[in-house]
Amino acid sequence: MVDHIFTSPEGKSYTVTGPEGSTRDQAWGMLQGQLGGETPAPAATPAAKAEPYSYGPVSDVAELGARGINAVAQMLPESIRPKPREPGPILQPANLPIFGKPSVAGMARGVYDVGEKAAGATKDVLTGEAPAEAAVGPMTEAAALLTPAAPGAAVLRRAARSALPAAEIKAAGSAGYETVRPMARARELSPEMARSTAEEIGTAVSRDVSPALAGRAHGLIGDLSNAKTLNDFVDIREKLGALVREGPGRERQAAGLARQLLNEELDLMTPGKTTVSPTSTALNVADKNYAIGNRAAEWESAMKDARLRASNEGAREGTQMRRIARPFLKEEAKNVSPEVAAAMSRVASPGVGPRALQVASAGDPTRGLGKYFGFGSLPFTFAHNPAMGIVQSAGMGAGYGAGRMYDRILRKRAENASQAMRAEAPATLAQLGDLRATNVPGRQWPLSPGATLVSLQGENR
Question: What is the mean pLDDT of residues 360-365?
């Protein structure tokens, strides 16, 4: 049983005994019924005083500073001395507006749980264990907590441990096609269906790009008429994808349009789903993996060649990487995201700081002209002018240090550009990484009602 005690304004006490779980309001109703309408309202209790806001150690530092200022002010002449200030509390726990009294451990655990839920949902979607719509809720929650504003792919990039190597991403692209082929081989095509598909796609593409301007693309479209099984369509689609990545402008345009139209035909001919997505979606993901993996591999190979050439020629590594990065960026700028283009641009155009280091590295005795006018001339300089020899030695040391720092900055930026490319691959986004968040909470990122994980990741670049 539970006792509820009430006190009237006159000071008289009333005790109401109720069963376990009864509320104070229920006891108050019982008391009113027993007293026959008398309403001895409980004595008013003073409102609890709101605790002052405190920012923990920050508030403590501010309070100690205020105490010091007050102590100095009390030393002023009485005529201008301010009224003494009452000291405030120190060593108080954080009591933030809106958030209340946060627990560091609790906040960290909450961030971890949100990231784990979002990444788990993403893995389930990309491995075919759940529909794409299942990831929208966890992705929204993670975006609201982990970043001020970011696309879904960026949220997962920040949660993942690291991007997969280029070779593994390319392998994932090839594996994506292999998951479709068993079903495609089993689906036979009649000669009439193959011929009509080739004619429809060829006619539609010719309206935008004539065969005279895109002979390779139209040749692949013509090969559709000879297809025996749906797997032949898949093979031709793969070749169209290679032409989209590597072909010249009009060929690329025609191949892209043909691939889009062939995607629609593949989905119509395979109403069942290969995983949780239509056939074209699975192949688009495979194309994106292969394109990103291939681009990253080419970038890494070009940067490796630049460093090797610099070593053979006695030049600066950073300068060679800049020279190779410029045409690479010009060629690929339209095929990569703004984040990747910016990372590549930081190699091609490193800015004032690295350029200043490059100029300062002129005295490096291990590179360029310094090899011939550095150590070789130092004994002669010391013999004729020791003071100048000391200056020359200092300049050589400074040049060597500036050159090493310049090369290191450019190498790191080249690595970051590769990481940025590989981080956008669906194969990278599918991995479960270290989900301990490092960003502060931010504002919520809105998603459109029809958004899905596939649409967030974007089309094949």
Answer: 78
